[in-house]
UniProtKB/TrEMBL annotation:
Keywords: Calcium, Membrane, Repeat, Signal
Record's protein name: Cadherin-like
GO biological process, one term: homophilic cell adhesion via plasma membrane adhesion molecules
Matches recorded under CDD domains: Cadherin_repeat
Origin species: Marisediminitalea aggregata
Record field: compositional bias (Acidic residues): 909-921
Region (Disordered): 904-929
Span of domain Cadherin: 34-126
Length: 929
């Protein structure tokens, strides 16, 4: 019953509702904006806010504002209640618009809002804060400057860079920067920019950074930095007030800057030298350096400058005051020209020397003339030796050219007046006969028989002998007897030459000048026999009986040494004093030479000879060393000779035998070790080095023992056993420190001894032994850096111990008395500088114990070491390695790609070893650099 009532009521309600809709009595109305479009104005780079208004007929509806289309040139933020914010894009001006919608949730309306953005002038913006430029040459680039308004800009430089020239295009910002030569690139410059509208120009500071990417960049960066060894040398000059000392430093700097490729700096240093002769010698040194770099034409240009200055120097000095060094200058320059291949210039110099000789020559012999004469003769010997070593036609030509100069000078040598004896008051041409005889001998050595006979005739004529050869009929001197009475020693050479060139003469006219039984007569007989052996070898004849006769002659006089010297070349290749074996080798009679050398080896093993002669004459340069080199030239068994020599050492040169002194044992074994190294017999070399270390322990002097071991280290380093060399060097260095723990180990004498020992480990870059051509351990490693696989680690190990030992020595030196410190000061300073301890070296230079003049000299020594510093001595492609890792900072600009490849060196990419690649490193040479 109740259900029916409820259902009736519902149906009634629905009917009423339908009726109401049909009549329209409750329809929804759309909202509407108060206006169809809105407008607002805003300044550029600012924002504008506002509120949009709209209404809805249906008062009860809630309106909501939304964005229909976004702004094109700004950001329009609209809130639901109609409030908004509009922010135009940066630097935009003009019109922008949005479309907005208002809705009641059912119906909506739209309107456009237009924004007018008014233009406001923008200041120019400098976008560059740093520019990277090269340390050498001109760098071009552009400074980034923008102006939002597109206005024309004007750029001016307010503050220019201190270390270079800057040019900027005032309209575009393009620039050119040229650094001052060798000035470090740092600092900044300031520019002002205006668009013609702003009242105050925009200022910007732009910093300068040096490029460190190309090889040229790295080279220029280094030499422009304070770390450059040349800059360091220049800094030391500030402590020197002495022109002579400064001249020496400037000459070294000139060579250094030439190596680096800064010719103008080299010339400037030479121009600052205060004396003409030192300027000339500096240009000569620069020329020599250019030659080694393969720039011979440039080298010749420097030599031309050198000659002009030296001629001016001699004109002011007076040719009659010519010194020995002056004469040597000319000879050296002639050799330089010949080595550079400039024969015309060499001949011009020869002409100049002849002119000078004529200018100072007088009938009577003068010291100045004698100096030119001596220098010329030494030059002939040197050129002759070079020819004997190489056998080349070019070296023969050089030797003959040198002999030609000696001809001109020797034949004009004046007389000396005899002051006592039977010929008092008469003239003696002793100096002329000496040099003319030497000239004849040189021509014989060079296998120039016509020239040799010509000057033999000239020499004999000075003794009054002539007429024996119609082809060389020289008038006999009226002072022959007087000359012979004052000087007859040279006749022995004449007798030998006469026997060689005139074997069929009934009388040896030179020998006839000497009194039988005298020393000169007996020496002449020896020379005659020497040339008779040569003549027999040339004919292919046996000369064993001749050797036996000579041996008997010497045995009767009890002098095996003279017999040995007759057999072999003295000086082991010096080019002077050539004896039988050397003469045969040089003439190409090798089998005959080996016969003579075998006989010489027999003499060396004779016990009487060993007991009576020094180590130099048995195992050293005049003994086994000279002999083995001649065997090598003759194609003989060098190792067999060395093994014989080793037997001599084992049988006679042992400390426990007490036959030889420690000094003799040292000299003998040093020679043997080096000879085995030269022969490439590393097995015996290493075994011998080990034996020598044991032998050293028995020496009476600790210093001798250490120096003996230091020599071993030098030899092993020079011949490629680098690890062994470092082990031995460090053993020597720790041995020094051990000795210093004893009070007696810190005396002046002991400390000087330690520093002498160190000369084998870290001395100059020149030969520490010129005969064996050995370098110090340090120099040998540096020269062969490309061949050492783990150079950085090995060299660090070596250098760490070296520095530690030197610092211990330094401390001991400071404990000496003032006078003792003064005595050792130069030695300790050089030891530190050459080891790379430059700060310690400078402390010694500045020490208060030094007198002012001594300080100048010490600073000069230090400056010269800095100037001559070379991390790759002997190399023509590199010279700087700041972190001592065996990788050069850069290659010299004169080096070719082929030369670099052949050197085996690889450029460093991290020059200060800090783990940051050079191109990304703000201080690629270390802190502050």
């Amino acid at each position: 019953m109740n259900t029916c009532k409820n259902k009736s009521r519902s149906l009634l309600a629905l009917a009423i509702a339908a009726s109401l809709v049909a009549c329209g009595g409750s329809e929804n109305k759309a909202p509407a904006f108060s206006q169809s479009s809105f407008a607002a104005t805003v300044s550029e780079d600012e924002s504008v806010t506002g509120t949009l208004s709209a209404s809805d007929p249906d008062s009860n509806d809630t309106l909501n504002f939304t964005l229909a289309s976004a702004a094109s040139n700004g950001v329009f933020e609209l809130n639901g209640n109609g409030s908004y914010t509009y922010t135009p894009n940066g630097d935009f001006f003009g019109e922008d618009s949005v479309t907005v919608t208002v809705s009641d949730g059912k119906l909506s309306d739209t309107a456009t809002v237009t924004f007018t953005v008014t233009n406001v002038n923008d200041a120019p913006v400098v976008g560059t804060s740093q520019v990277t430029v090269s340390s050498q040459g001109t760098t071009t680039g552009s400074i980034e400057i923008t102006d939002a308004d597109g206005d024309d800009i004007t750029i001016t430089v307010i503050t220019a860079p201190q270390n270079g020239q800057l040019e900027i295009n005032s309209a575009t910002g393009e620039f050119e920067y040229t650094p001052y030569t060798l000035e470090q690139i740092d600092g900044s410059f300031t520019i002002a920019v205006t668009d013609g509208v702003i009242s105050d120009p925009v200022e910007a500071e732009i910093s300068l950074a040096a490029s460190f990417s190309t090889n040229a960049d790295k080279l220029s960066y280094y030499y422009s930095s304070a770390q450059s060894h040349l800059k360091q040398a220049e800094a030391r000059m500030e402590n020197i007030i002495d022109d002579d000392l400064l001249n020496e430093v400037r000459a070294g700097l000139a060579v250094g800057y030439t190596t680096a490729g800064f010719a103008s700096e080299a010339d400037a240093n030479i121009a600052a030298i205060t004396t003409l002769d030192d300027q000339a010698r500096a240009y000569q040194a620069v020329g020599e350096r250019l030659d080694t770099l393969g720039l011979t034409e440039e080298g010749d240009d420097k030599r031309a400058s050198s000659v002009a200055l030296f001629n001016q120097y001699l004109a002011e000095k007076g040719i009659s005051n010519l010194s020995s060094s002056d004469a040597n200058y000319f000879i050296g320059l002639i050799n330089d020209y010949e080595e550079s291949g400039n024969a015309d210039a060499a001949n011009a110099m020869l002409t100049s020397v002849r002119i000078y000789a004529d200018a100072i020559n007088d009938d009577e012999y003068s010291t100045a003339y004698g100096r030119l004469l001596s220098a010329s003769r030494i030059n002939v010997s040197n050129q002759q030796t070079a020819y004997f070593e190489s056998g080349s036609d070019a070296d023969l030509d050089s030797a003959l050219t040198a002999a030609g100069l000696l001809e001109d000078i020797a034949m004009e040598v004046g007389y000396r007046v005899i002051t006592r004896g039977d010929y008092e008051g008469q003239y003696s041409y002793q100096m002329r006969v000496l040099y003319v005889t030497w000239l004849a001998e040189h021509y014989m050595y060079l296998n120039q028989p016509e020239k040799a006979k010509q000057y033999l005739a000239e020499a004999l004529a000075l003794y009054g002998v002539s007429g024996y050869d119609a082809n060389y009929n020289v008038e006999a001197s009226e002072y022959g007897a007087a000359t012979l009475s004052s000087y007859s020693s040279i006749v022995e050479i004449q007798a030998g030459l006469f026997a060689y060139y005139y074997p069929d003469a009934e009388t040896n006219l030179a020998l006839a000048l000497l009194e039988p039984g005298t020393r000169n007569y007996n020496d002449a007989i020896v020379f005659i026999h020497m040339y008779q052996v040569l003549a027999a070898a040339e004919k292919g004849e046996d000369f064993s009986d001749l050797l036996a006769s000579v041996k008997t002659h010497f045995e009767e006089n009890g002098d095996l040494r003279d017999y040995y010297e007759f057999l072999v070349q003295q000086g082991a290749g010096s080019g002077s004093g050539i004896r039988t074996a050397g003469l045969l080798v040089n003439r190409g009679h090798l089998d005959a030479a080996l016969t003579v050398l075998d006989e010489a080896l027999t003499v060396l093993t004779d016990e009487d000879y060993i007991y009576s002669e020094s180590a130099k004459m048995t195992l050293g340069s005049y003994g086994c060393a000279g002999l083995s080199r001649l065997y090598q030239k003759a194609g003989g068994d060098v190792n067999g000779v060395l093994n014989t020599c080793l037997s001599i050492a084992e049988n006679y040169y042992q400390p426990e035998q007490n036959i030889m002194s420690d000094a003799a044992i040292i000299e003998g074994y040093q020679a043997l070790l080096t000879l085995y190294a030269e022969a490439g017999n590393t097995e015996v070399m290493n075994a011998l080095a080990s034996d020598m270390s044991v032998i050293a322990q028995s020496f009476d002097s600790d210093i001798d023992a250490l120096e003996f071991q230091a020599y071993i280290a030098s030899v092993t380093a020079n011949y490629g056993a680098f690890e062994s060399a470092v082990v031995m060097s460090n053993s020597v260095l720790t041995g020094i420190v051990s000795l210093m723990k004893d009070d007696e180990g810190n005396t002046l004498e002991a400390l000087e001894g330690y520093l002498e020992v160190l000369l084998w480990i870290t001395g100059s870059d020149d030969y520490v032994s010129s005969y064996f051509k050995l370098y110090t351990v340090k120099t040998a490693m540096r020269r062969q850096a490309a061949d050492i696989t783990e150079f950085a680690a090995l060299f660090s190990q070596f250098q760490t111990q070296l520095h530690s030992t030197l610092k211990a020595i330094n401390a001991a030196v400071t404990e000496l008395s003032d006078n003792e410190q003064q005595d050792i000061m130069a030695l300790i300073l050089l030891a530190n500088a050459r080891a790379g301890l430059f700060a310690e070296a400078e402390q010694f230079a500045a020490s208060e114990v030094n007198a002012t003049a001594d300080q100048y000299e010490l600073y000069a020594q230090l400056a010269v070491v800095w100037a001559e510093k070379d991390d790759y001595p002997g190399s023509k492609v590199a010279n700087v390695d700041t972190d001592s890792d065996g990788l050069p900072n850069f290659f010299l600009t004169t080096a070719t790609e082929q030369e670099i490849a052949e050197s085996g060196l690889v450029a460093d990419t991290d020059s200060d070893n800090d783990g940051i690649a050079d191109e990304q490193d703000a201080t690629p040479l270390g802190e502050g650099n």
